[in-house]
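For reproducibility, we list the full input for the zinc ion complex.
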Amino acid sequence: MAAPGDAPCSGEAEPSAGGRGSSGVEVVLLSDPAVPAPLCPHGPTLLFVKVSQGKEEARRFYACSACRDRKDCNFFQWEDEKPSGARLTARESRNQRGRPPLSRMQCVERYLRFIQLPLTQRKFCQSCQRLLLPDDWGEHREHQLVGDVSVSQLRRPSQLLYPLENKKTNAQYLFADRTCQFLVGLVSTLGFRRVLCVGTPRLHELIGLTASGDKKSTLKSLLLDIDFRYSQFYMEDSFCHYNMFNHHFFDGKPALEVCRAFLQEDKGEGVIMVTDPPFGGLVEPLAVTFKKLIDDSHQEMPIFWIFPYFFEARICQFFPSFCMLDYQVDYDNHALYKHGKTGRKQSPVRIFTNIPPNKIPLPTEEGYRFCPLCQRYVSLENQHCEHCNSCTSKDGRKWKHCFLCKKCVKPSWIHCSFCNRCAVAHHSCDGPKDGCFICGERDHKRSSCPNISTLRKASKAVRKQKQRKSNKMKMETTEGQSMNHPSVTGRRKRRERAHQYLCS
Ligand code: SAH
Ligand code: ZN
Ligand code: ZN
Ligand code: ZN
Ligand code: ZN
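The corresponding predicted structure, in tokenized form, follows.
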């Protein structure tokens, strides 16, 4: 079957049945290594299979590894499809256009020129999210500029750049100071000398700021991130433009070598990886990537993988030696995930690690305490249950033991004699009688079901398909005028422009 995308010059349109990100899809991990995946602007694509009502459909397809929204990358190809020559040519030129406007080398050269400029000539264009050299000023005259960019501003790019807000593909949630300081302190306390920052630009930056002091004890760090705006601020040995869903270095072999050299310094000793991937991302490809990075380090590299607590079962499936710390990771620009003390909601984001938890002290001034029985630090309200013989809370609240379920459950749950399990007070009793509501397994609840993301996507897909249809109708009636609609705020326009720059 030919997809509509076969028409030369059209994009990589997908069949109307919907593709990646719009339905219950799962990544196929054991794809044949002899068959290389086709490339999109974000590197090798991943092989997916659609799952509906628990059944895999036979036909598999390739789609972008990084973008969960087809607006950002609409690559689509059936696994068994042979794209025409014209389509391959169109794809190749699209991949070319998808490159950042400046090469990594050019960015470094520009940066070196920039820091030589007198303060009054150092300008940053907010509209384009770029550092400007005097030659560029003309082009950006009408834009929003920041002048007198100081050295300390240059060393804090995460404050100069605005966080990307694209919800599905690349939302950036920056660590709150409290959390960032805690992480830097912790890796130093644990004796690490190098930190591989994967999707943690603010941590990378804080390490750089802290490093200025005495040389011997300083931490080094290398940032790998898909947001290439950061390449303007760092030399080649401290930033690589990278896709963590397919372990793709956008600047090829030299960048991969930078990463390898960093990992293998001191025979691979003293290095830790800290990663905070987008939460919408698929756990499987991330796990595959992290295993490759571990291999490159030639050691059992310690890892901090920052992710919401309800992914515990998924993560431990791939890394059985990982455990989840009670520490609540806070963000600056995430209304929901800020610290609970001021009455705001508690953050569900935790640190997963292969370092024994008894080695990881959590700040007692924030209420964490050491449980000698569990041999780990736990949240203030996480109480040791003598029946479970463990501090059982996952969400930071005090959990209660249910003798019928023989385990601790969330404080708001009550034991339902009809369902024969604990559940929220007002639930409908028509789920599976025992165990997980999703797959019926008895060893976990819905919240830690390995199938949850598939299901969430599937139900989203139905909603989205409906929405897409109605959007399409809207587009058809308002196209043309919508582009210049005056109600679009300047801020949003700026973002869109910069987004174009990022994705062009
Ligand atoms: N809390 C972190 C930021 C986490 S937000 C901090 O403060 O440093 C997620 C980060 O992952 C962002 O920096 C984003 O640009 C990056 N990212 C998103 N998708 C990515 C991908 N496919 N490959 C690499 N990095 C990615
Ligand atoms: Zn892509
Ligand atoms: Zn305990
Ligand atoms: Zn208990
Ligand atoms: Zn119960």
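The pocket of zinc ion (ligand 3) is lined by residues 371, 373-374, 384, 390-391 (CB under 6 Å). Confidence is low (pLDDT under 50) at residues 1-23, 340-344, 454-504. Both points were considered when choosing residues for closer inspection.
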